[in-house]
């Protein structure tokens, strides 16, 4: 029996990426502390306990609250966040240094304090509007053994009332403008389907 290549989609409960890789013949699993959003292979547990389970590729989405550049100002307003930032960066570093041949990590633009701990800055910045999604959200990719993603379908911007070029119905992506709710953090961090499909299409032939 031919062994399928194995994908670990870590810190993820949505199935977009796993489904895209399963369509390419992968044994794809999501892993998160929360239950999955749909049917399929899912590990509900601490991701760090499963890094050595024989994966050929991993795509991770670690918590970005304390390492994103957009929130760096809070470090100087709330000193207690420094330790939370350090722990978040060390968690990111553990994922990056996992003994897995092919690794991709998706996160917003980080601040330099986090990068100093992680020891590696991002390799690529992509936008959902480069992959057929009418939205703007700068997304960084850290890539180990994986090529940079090639844009698949550019969505042209609209003009706002002030003449500014925008994507979507608002000046920021729909994810960034979500109303407060208990699911807001998960909804904001969800990978756009167009990007997930590009990962499956372009990276799905690797590791076989």
Please describe the structure with a list of short key phrases separated by commas or semicolons.
7-stranded mixed beta sheet, globular, alpha/beta
Describe this structure in words.
By secondary structure, the protein is of the alpha/beta class. It has one domain (6-153, 190-203): 3-Layer(aba) Sandwich (Rossmann fold), CATH 3.40.50.150. 25% of the residues lie in helices and 18% in strands. It is built from six helices and nine strands. It has helices at residues 16-22, 73-77, 81-96, 112-118, 184-189, 193-203; strands spanning 6-10, 27-32, 42-44, 57-60, 102-107, 124-126, 139-144, 158-159, 165-166. The strands form two sheets. The protein has a seven-stranded mixed β-sheet with strand order 3-2-1-4-5-7-6, covered by helices on one side. A hairpin with a 5-residue loop joins β8 and β9 (165-166). α1 (16-22) runs parallel beside α6 (193-203) and α3 crosses α4 (112-118). The relative contact order is 0.16. Mean pLDDT is 90; it is low at 171-186.
Described by the principal axes of the CA atoms, the overall outline is: globular
Tell me the CATH superfamily.
Vaccinia Virus protein VP39
Distance between the termini: 14 Å
The level of helicity is 25-40%
Helix/strand order: EHEEEHHEHEEEEHH
- What fold name stands as the CATH topology? Rossmann fold
The neighbouring-strand order within the major sheet is 3-2-1-4-5-7-6
How many domains? The number is 1
Instruction: Find the structural class using helix and strand composition.
Output: alpha/beta
Q: How confident overall, as mean pLDDT?
A: 90
Specify the biggest β-sheet: 7 strands, mixed
**What is the percentage of strand-forming residues?**
15-25%
Query: What is the name of the CATH architecture?
Result: 3-Layer(aba) Sandwich
What is the CATH class name?
Alpha Beta
Radius of gyration: 17 Å
- State the helix count: 6
